Fold this sequence. Notes:
Number of strands: 12
Number of helices: 16
Order of helices and strands: EEHHHEEEEEEHEEHHHEEHHHHHHHHH
Distance between the termini: 31 Å
Oligomer: single chain
Structural class: alpha+beta
Helix content: 40-55%
Bound molecules: adenosine monophosphate, magnesium ion
Amino acid sequence: MTQANGPKFDNSYRRLPDRFFSAQMPTPVKAPALIRINRGLAEQLGISVAWLESEDGLQVLAGNRLAAGSDPIATVYAGHQFGGWNPRLGDGRAVLLGEVLDAEGRRYDIQLKGAGRTPYARGGDGRSPLGPVLREYIVSEAMAQLGVPTSRSLAAVTTGESVMRERPLPGGILTRVASSHIRIGTFQYFAGQGDLEAIRTLADHVIQRHYPATAGAARPYVALLEAVFDRQAKLIAQWQQLGFIHGVMNTDNMLVSGETIDYGPCAFIDNYQPDTVFSSIDVNGRYAFANQPGIAQWNLAWLARALLPLLDEDQDAAVKAAQQALDGFVRSYEAAYGELMRRKLGLNQHDAESEKLASTLLTLMADSEADYTLTFRRLAEVAATPPAEPETAGEGGASDSVASLYQLPESFGSWLEQWRERLERDGRDPVEVSRGMLAINPAFIPRNHLVEEVIRAAVDSGDLEPFHRLVDRLGQPYRYDAADARLASPPRPEQVVANTFCGT
Length: 504
Ligand code: AMP
Ligand code: MG
């Protein structure tokens, strides 16, 4: 243990009963090297960038050395994976170094993912290849910049060791930051053990840590359930409006804090198809894009079931409270999604007409295989131009227009008329409308073919430049720059990545 300028830890989860975790040191690696430090996040967390970039910082990020105050553990949880119950999962290759508080007093977990085997590793090697580390870094940081609640990436390192998958691959470790790593599956683990005392302890911890306002409610655990559901509803609405597919929405991959976690075979939709599936192991399409809200509700029902004994002394009343909370999830999701879609379309308010415009547009997009992201981006641009010449804006290569990359399909004609009629009735200044739409409809998303390209350069040639360039570009997703047109373009047919392997 060394250094004075490392993180200041305060490890609240470590103070919970012993059966919540195992004390677990990271397993050292041979020859670590730094890939990237997330400076903005480090500053937010009050962790010195200079220290992170130092030799001491590198050794901590690689799991070779412990920072002062770090008391590492692996946490236990259970979960439903692709619908099947697994009573004991846990952090098989992740080690929680501890928790830090930012300047505002917000608490964050600092976790090393790929730090070696733990008691929960089962058959796994406890390691992570470089590819999935880069993917998680890119996509989680893009999500953060897009305003989606998510785990973050503080750093990525290579280990100097290889990891055996279909072939030997360079190993990596991601330093993951989240406001906690407590999952639906954490509650399910104790429910599976019939350990009511642990469920209560965990619920109290979650209330104090994430939902302090519910502590004073008449029925705090019902209020907790409703609050978790509400955050999840808003989170999934964000995924849907962005065209994000998580890929592995198992109950152990859903945090009660309402942050996105576990970027495995995830991807953003290119051309809009609601049945799009990305994970190669999701053979039944359980986690297809359009299924995500329903799957979230199914997962949350398991949280409700785990909490049932706490909801009310009378079991019928408890079931009723859980059912009402689940109904609340659907209402909350629909309200959040409807609100986001009306903003994407530049409309004044969410109403039956805005819903109809959004759903008709999606149908047209599916029929014409339109690019989801660029359709909305282009609509944001044409909102500022007179209806007579909707497709001319940006022609001649205006550097802030995606027109040279993408034109709206001809089949949108009558929809465009209806949309313009509504905009006219709304009566707002078109330039103002356009500006609002440009601020919610990104030009740059981490397109799957780009992520794959970046990973290939890193893994096959040790070239990390494309990775850095992509991460930098995704730092400003709403500001289009024609110099980076390639990074905004949909894949050409030969670039399309059909699915992403789960072999992380
Ligand atoms: P995931 O699919 O990443 O959500 O992981 C599901 C479960 O498998 C979790 O309990 C992980 O900790 C565990 N796991 C995944 N990969 C490995 C690995 N390489 N070694 C040990 N455990 C792993
Ligand atoms: Mg997981």
